[in-house]
Design brief:
The chain is about 50% helix and about 10% strand. By secondary structure, it is of the alpha/beta class. A seven-stranded mixed sheet has the order 3-4-9-8-5-6-7. Bound molecules: tryptophanyl-5'AMP.
Length: about 400
């Protein structure tokens, strides 16, 4: 399972102060090994990968490359699946103007899991979270973004029959009773220690984690039987599961939700994750080909000061976002990826050529994605559940009169 190393961020972290990972902020060069210890998660072992292979017949590149690298109870959920028990997938999005390529990483993997395991997906848009955080000026503008971001999700090819999407403020009649049951077991001091909330934190934010946690139990409530839940997401969302959902599950008689965590796709700057708050170093799915090209060509690289030096010493792929774009999304073939790595580090491949090749691939990807995104507009109602009692009726099945 040898793939060219991806210790981009972790290799640069020198101490605990170098990075911050919370559900609302990821800063600095994340030490992913330390994070596993800090959060108390488990690394995905070779044994677990073999279990995956036994079930799916292959090991997805994200697993092989350790982009998805950490978990909670993944072994448990795979064991239950092997014993004939189905599970559902749960993931989501805090809606904002732009979806970037980093957001697509957990969703692409979720779609793969849906296909391989035939699992239903529950997808939550937390318009309330964005409003309460202050990233969005109003619930309406957050909701509008949710409808726009949904196009990106649909464009990835999820099965409408097995995918249930909701926007928090439109689905509260169903969600609130579950969130209230959770909230009864969560104290302010627990939340202060999990999320670092302070006395000045607004009470909406203090209640909100119970709503993100509620989806872990939603299908069990709606279907009247316990159903295991698997959450694919980047590791920043873990505090919701560790501190809230997994904490209260046994008290409410539900299974603890399982998780599979990914690392962050980097931005095009020097270090740090791809983030909408740094638009010049993020590729948005709605960027025009020209903008994509400009951003990629202006990327930071692991190159040397002069061509001569680079020919002599080679470039530093491990700290280069351009290399990592191939690693995450733009070179599926391991042998080809290894060739890019070797050509880079040996000085055969120069950064200008490498960036130009990447720019072509990213442009092509974004153009195709945008076409699928446009087509998605026609089938939005096949994904969104309406907040009627019973909870899972799709809008497309409800007549409008
Ligand atoms: P949000 O909108 O911040 O992020 C959406 C998803 O993208 C992941 N992510 C990334 N993954 C890889 N590389 C990156 N650079 C990168 N940046 C973000 C996030 O981990 C997330 O999976 N509160 C949530 C919305 C939510 C949710 C959930 C997410 C509600 N329920 C269940 C995951 C699972 C949020 O604001 O995500």
């Amino acid at each position: 399972m040898e793939v060219v190393a991806d210790e981009f961020a972790s290799s640069q972290a020198t101490n605990d102060q170098d990075y911050v990972v919370t559900p609302w902020q990821v800063k600095g060069n994340v030490d992913y090994d330390k994070l596993v210890e800090q959060f108390g998660t488990s690394r995905i072992t070779d044994e677990l990968l073999h279990k995956f292979k036994k079930i799916t017949g292959e090991i997805h590149p994200y697993l092989k490359r350790k982009i998805f690298y950490s978990h909670r109870d993944l072994d448990w959920i795979l064991n239950r699946y092997e014993a004939g028990e189905e599970f559902f997938l749960y993931t989501g999005r805090g809606p904002s103007e732009n979806v970037h390529l980093g957001h697509l990483i957990p969703w692409i993997f979720t779609k793969y899991l849906q296909d391989k395991f035939g699992a239903e997906l529950y997808f939550q848009f937390t318009d309330d979270e964005k409003f309460l955080l202050g990233t969005k000026p109003s619930i309406d503008s957050a909701k509008k973004s949710a409808y726009d971001n949904l196009l990106d999700l649909i464009a990835l090819g999820f099965d409408p029959k097995k995918t249930f999407v909701f926007i928090d403020t439109e689905y509260m009649e169903t969600m609130y009773p579950i969130a209230a049951r959770i909230a009864k077991h969560i104290t302010l001091s627990m939340e202060k220690s999990i999320f670092g909330f302070e006395n000045s934190t607004n009470v909406g934010m203090i209640f909100f984690p119970t709503i993100e946690a509620a989806t872990c139990f939603l299908p069990s409530v709606l279907k009247g039987k316990n159903i295991p839940c698997l959450i694919p997401a980047a590791i920043d969302q873990d505090p919701y599961w560790r501190g809230i959902a997994r904490e209260v599950a046994p008290k409410l008689g539900f299974y603890k939700p399982a998780q599979i965590h990914c690392k962050f796709m980097p931005g095009l700057g020097q270090g740090g994750k791809m983030s909408a708050s740094q638009p010049e170093t993020a590729i948005f799915t709605t960027d025009s080909p020209n903008v994509v090209e400009k951003k990629v060509l202006s990327s930071f690289t692991g190159g040397r000061a002069t061509v001569e030096e680079q020919r002599k010493l080679g470039a530093q792929a491990d700290i280069c976002p351009v290399y990592h774009y191939y690693y995450y999304l733009f070179e599926e073939n391991d042998k080809e990826l290894e060739r890019i790595y070797n050509d880079c580090t040996s000085g055969t491949l120069l950064c200008g050529d490498c960036k130009a090749m990447l720019a072509e691939r990213v442009k092509e990807y974004v153009i195709k994605h945008q076409e699928k995104r446009e087509k998605a507009r026609e089938i939005v109602d096949e994904f969104i559940v309406a907040d009627v009692r019973g909870g899972l009726k799709k809008r497309s099945t409800i007549s409008r009169g």
